[in-house]
Amino acid sequence: MRSLVCIGFICLSISAAPALAQESVQVPPSAKKLNGEEIFKLYNGMRASFDNKQNKVSLTGEIFYDLDKKLMFGTYNWDNKDKGLFKGKAWVKGEQFCNKPQKGKETCTTVYLDGTTYYEVDSKGNVASVDTILGNPPPPPTSGKKMTADEVLAAVKGKRIFVTIFDFDKPVVADVKWDTKKKKSTGKFIMGGTKEGKANAAYVVKNDTICFPSDGKNNCYDYYATDNGFIEVNADGKVHGISTYQ
Q: What would the pLDDT profile of 85-111 be if each residue is shown by its tens digit?
């Protein structure tokens, strides 16, 4: 029998509920407790990585917040057994940050900030999540090997890939695979926390760049290798997207 289990802002249908209570994490003394106004200022327009601490198995991912529209969306990885995209609602209530996944209940936490790390603490005083602020958009790469088009196509072959795109009207997260025979990338996407659908983008190779005509103008990209994927940079030298192998 499968049941719906919600941890943080992720709700999954699984065969058995995970054992709760991961090894305890403490908020460092140097962290500052944020008030409601500070929480809104921090979260609104933020991109972050998250590491949920409410269960024994790993739940990590990347998330965008748009508190003006009370939205959140991103990617998740549940112990390398379940991965994908998610979205939900997010807002500030009084002196707390609150969120509600698509199929889950509202949860609210107190927020503590320490540099670029922030801690969400539940009503029992336990650290529910340890998150890190990321660039939105990130700066262009200053290191990492520049990849040839052939190297990119060899690297993506047969892999599932999470993609984050920064230079559209709204941020996009996608879960895709590249078909190097048909020369296209397919999967699904969420844009801005509101629009979602199937991803289906053809590509062509030009002068050792890879171009996606459906991206509109400035659609050819250079690729720089990372530890687990690559960064796409457009002709203006700005980061178009970040891809990670799953």
A: 999 999 999 999 999 988 788 999 999
Q: Looking at the predicted structure, is the pLDDT value of residue 209 above 60? A: yes
Is there a single domain that holds both residue 7 and residue 126? yes
Pair 43, 129 in one domain = yes
List, as one string, the DSSP characters of 8-55. Answer: TTEEEEESSPPPB-PSP----TTPEEP-HHHHHHHHTT-EEEEEE-SB
Domain hosting 62: range is 3-134
End-to-end CA distance of the chain: 27
pLDDT of residue 103: 76
Residues 6+ apart with CB under 8 A from 89: 70, 71, 72, 99, 100
Amino acid sitting at position 148: T
Q: Any idea which residue has 């003394």 for tokens?
A: 29
Cis peptide before 138 (omega within 30 of 0): no
